Amino acid sequence: MTLEVDMGAHGPIPKRSEERRRRNKDDGVELTQAPSGPPADLPDLPEPDSHWHDIAVDWYLSLRESGQAAFYQPSDWAMARYAAELMSRLLSADKDKMPNGQAVAALDSVMARLLTTEGDRRRARIELERKPASKQTPASVTAIADYRSSIGG
């Protein structure tokens, strides 16, 4: 039995669906939208290891609060723990030496597979709904008119 999997695209990061001008071109793979924020059915996950670097702990915990976690399976959470461990080791390494480039590239690859950045999610055709920005009231036109009248204009 052969399974077909649609992989993420290579090349430039696609625009968000609301930023695209042309909607008549079929991109092939359908776009999946999910709510942002933590999923409702988050499984019981192990706590971060006590020896992890603070940045690795923050990253691991942020995955629990992210919308892409709705797509995670137990193996994805295990990969997230692996990435946090690798990140912690890189961050805790001797500060006088440059980090190993291969280890940094491997960590970046693992984080991309976990869809941790918006670019990674767009390439995989997944969009998290954005919360609407709060509306700011525009400057009043009457304030300009008052200013002009005060200077004799």
**Helical percent range?**
25-40%
How are the strands ordered across the major sheet? 1-2
Ends apart, CA distance between termini = 81 Å
Strand tally, please? 2
Low-confidence stretches: none
Apparent shape? extended
- Helix/strand order: EHHHHEH
Strand count, sense and closure of the main sheet? 2 strands, parallel
Average pLDDT figure: 81
Strand content: under 5%
The Cα radius of gyration reads 23 Å
Total of DSSP H or I helical runs spanning 4+ residues: 5
Short summary of the structure?
The protein is mainly alpha-helical and 153 residues long.
Give your account of this protein's structure.
The chain has 153 residues and is mostly helical. The chain is 39% helix and 4% strand. It is built from five helices and two strands. The longest helix is centred in the middle third of the chain and has 19 residues, at 74-92. The model has no long low-confidence stretch (mean pLDDT 81).
Explain the layout of strands and helices.
Layout: E1 32-34, H1 54-64, H2 74-92, H3 101-113, H4 118-123, E2 126-128, H5 141-150
Parallel strand pairs: 1-2
Helix pairs in contact: 1-2, 2-3
What would the keywords be for this entry?
extended; 153 residues; single chain; mainly alpha
